């Protein structure tokens, strides 16, 4: 009887391990598919009409990287404070995170034809001027059945804030999540402060 119970427990444990392994494999398959999603094709007409581009971090040019870093500092340094930004290393940490492999961007330009041009308070140029971006990535969450899309940061040029660009990029990111068949969209917001950001995403 004892041997039978022991064999039953061993079989149950083996089955549980097998099921967990199969679930993890499914999650990794979804993650791989999500990371390989061609956002430009998936949201093609929407992006073209609104003068928005979708690129991976490794596809960014030097000018793009400089602009992303400068805009992040412009918006975040006043919130963090000079001491935390410089001595605390927040600035360096954000700079390192910005272009890691797997990071993806949706960038809004102010062009003569797109929504961004009508909303942003800048003088549009023929090739467009970047005025806002959202950076996101796909992650495996321990308790989630499938991967999630995590919004790492959303930044808008000061002169173009409160024009709807932030909400537009948020909506597009949610659309990417649906196209990628992930379990949801999560937003990374620091617990200490950033009340404006919390209110924005809650709206």
Give the gist of this structure.
Helices cover 52% and strands 17% of the residues. It has 203 residues and is an alpha+beta fold.
Describe the structure.
The termini are far apart. Strands 1-2-3-4-5 form a 5-stranded mixed beta sheet. The longest helix is centred in the first third of the chain and has 34 residues, at 2-35. Residues 196-203 have low confidence and may be disordered. A hairpin with an 8-residue loop joins β3 and β4. The chain has 203 residues and is α+β, with helices and mostly antiparallel strands. The radius of gyration is 21 Å and the shape is globular. 52% of the residues lie in helices and 17% in strands.
User: Roughly how many Å is the radius of gyration?
Assistant: 21 Å
N-C termini distance: 61 Å
- SSE topology string: HHHEHHHEHEEHEH
Low-pLDDT stretches: 196-203
Beta-strand residue percentage: 15-25%
Order of neighbouring strands in the sheet with most strands: 1-2-3-4-5
Helix content: 40-55%
- The beta-strand count equals 5
Largest sheet: 5 strands, mixed
Structural class: alpha+beta
Overall, the morphology is globular
| Number of H- or I-type helical stretches | 9
Estimate the mean pLDDT confidence. 81
């Amino acid at each position: 009887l004892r041997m039978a119970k022991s064999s039953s427990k061993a079989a149950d444990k083996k089955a549980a391990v097998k099921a967990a392994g199969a679930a993890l494999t499914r999650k990794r398959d979804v993650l791989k598919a999500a990371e390989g999603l061609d956002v430009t094709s998936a949201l093609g007409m929407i992006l073209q009409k609104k003068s928005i581009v979708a690129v991976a971090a490794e596809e960014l040019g030097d000018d793009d990287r400089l602009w992303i870093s400068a805009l992040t500092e412009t918006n975040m340094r006043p919130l963090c404070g000079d001491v935390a930004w410089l001595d605390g290393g927040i600035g360096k940490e954000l700079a390192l995170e910005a272009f890691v492999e797997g990071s993806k961007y949706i960038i809004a330009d102010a062009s003569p034809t797109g929504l961004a041009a009508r909303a942003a308070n800048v003088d549009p140029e023929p090739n467009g001027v970047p005025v806002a971006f959202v950076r996101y990535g796909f992650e495996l969450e321990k308790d989630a059945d499938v991967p999630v899309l995590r919004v790492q940061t959303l930044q808008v040029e000061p002169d173009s804030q409160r024009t709807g660009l932030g909400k537009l990029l948020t909506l597009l990111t949610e659309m990417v999540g649906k196209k990628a068949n992930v379990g949801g969209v999560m937003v990374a917001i620091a617990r200490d402060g950033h009340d404006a950001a919390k209110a924005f995403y809650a709206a």
